[in-house]
Amino acid sequence: MSKEKRLKKIAEALAEMAAGRFYYHIEKSSKKDNIDALISGINMMAEEISEALLHEGYVNSNETIKHIVLMNFEIDLNGKVKAINQQACDILSYTCEEIVGESFECFLNEKSVPKWKRHWNKLKDRKMKDTSLDLTFRTKHGLLVPSACYINRLGGKAGGMESLIVTVVKHSKKQVELEEYLMEKEKNGRENSKREKPVLSSMVNKQKVILTSSDIAKIRQVRNYFIENLERDFPPIEKLAREFGTNTFKIKYGFKELYGVSVFHFIRNERLRKAKMLVEGSNITFKRITQLCGFKSVPSFSTTFKNEFGYTPKQLRRKFTSENS
Amino acid sequence: MDSIENNYALYTLDGGILYIRYHADIVIKYEGAVKIVADRLRFQQGICYPALCDITGVEEVDKPARDYLASEGSILLKAVAFIVGNPMSNIISYFYLKTTKPSIPTKAFQDVEEAKLFLEKYI
Fold first, then answer.
1. A34 in contact with chain B, both atoms CB, cutoff 8 A
2. B25, B42, B98, B99, best to mutate vs chain A, most A CBs in 10 Å
3. What pLDDT score does A179 carry?
């Protein structure tokens, strides 16, 4: 591919990103030159921004993340697209007529085609029911859309396969809530305008306290301090807040907003995460792991570990060693 | 000189430094990242080392692998020196350093001797 064409693809992907669509990727050549490096950087940046948008800047695990369907394909017994939703056409930059009747694999990139074929044969031969796999779609303009696909086999009367549904789902919460809110508003109509007030007021009540970028930077510093010093006994939050130039409320609230858990649970999770890595991947004694991860004693470490992972450290190490030897 | 090898890299211990040299044209996905860290930990046998990590062969690290390496990649390491040389390894190391803020001293070098000099402080 010529340099001009490669640069054109970069421009197209950047235009899509400017419009808020971060699920496109640019295909690299085999040259591994500066343009490929730039493409890698843009693709990685799109992944990072896409995830940041998912969490609206923060992770908030208090709310369940809902899903919206992004692309939906119905595929017939010959592997051809029978029907497709409009959003899929928009994302792939084709018209519905251009896609329907064509082989599904025409819309995948080279690496995904053999993967799809393998699964397709298994599904046809009834060796597999529903499954999921990572496939990469290619748009009309040559941009890539890496996607986790959920594949469901639709059965007929005799138990044979009638067609397949391929669904690509992206995570969402805000959009769904907004759609529900708008639908509700429409349903209630003008005459029920009084009933809208509680809906609106409850939305206002749920508004977040705004953390400034300097607050977020301080909360991240506190997080890094915890991660880098897991072996220590941490001072009370009041003292930490003073040391980092913030206050107790912001640390507590900020941890919930940024990391989805309380400070106590964050530290506990990080200690357990590190301990699990050391239990599985090393032959360090459990006494030493207890110290390295900041647990009070070996028995309390062992109990907490078992409550979290279902195995004592000894059991897990034995299991891991036998599985990997 | 001890060494082990998997599908991704060659791990060698020499003079108190752990050398990790990735093979050519490596694409790291989540499963690969887990294997890379697990094999390293087994090879280290619980001892903490500074590591010289030659990533010139790495072509791509996907998002789940980047996330895994950001949280687990530096466990039992005192410091990391990346060896970069081509545009791809440059952008990968640059991205890693910018987005993950490693908890141990981590720097990228073009020159192996300079990288060793940086790591010697941590032996």
1. yes
2. B42
3. 46
Residue with structure tokens 């591919």?
A1
Give B-chain residues touching A41 at CB under 8 angstroms: 91, 94-95
Which residues on adjacent β-strands are paired with residue A168? A71, A149
**C-alpha B51, offset from chain centre:** 7
Which secondary structure element, helix H or strand E, spans residue B54, and what is its range?
strand B49-54
Locate the chain A residue with the closest alpha carbon to B73.
Answer: A277
Q: Contacts by A175-184 with C-beta closer than 8 Å and gap 24+?
A: A175/A68, A176/A66, A176/A67, A176/A68, A177/A66
Tokens in use for A73? 């394909």
Q: Indicate yes or no: CB of B87 within 8 angstroms of CB of A282.
A: no
Q: How many residues does chain A have?
A: 325
Task: Return the amino acid letter for A108.
Answer: L
Query: Which residues in chain A are closer than 8 Å to B92, comparing Cβ atoms?
Result: 40
3-state secondary structure of A134: strand
Cβ-based contacts of A227 with chain B (< 8 Å) = 103
CA distance A190 to A104: 46
pLDDT of residue B109: 96
pTM above 0.90, yes or no: no
Q: Which residues of A touch B87 (CB under 8 A)?
A: 32-34, 36-37
Q: Where are the alpha helices (DSSP H) in chain A?
A: 3-18, 34-54, 86-92, 96-99, 112-124, 174-188, 193-205, 213-228, 237-243, 248-259, 263-281, 286-292, 298-309, 313-324
How do residues B82-110 score in pLDDT, each as one tens digit? 999 999 999 999 989 888 878 789 999 99
Instruction: Tell me the C-alpha distance between A97 and A89, whole Å.
Output: 9
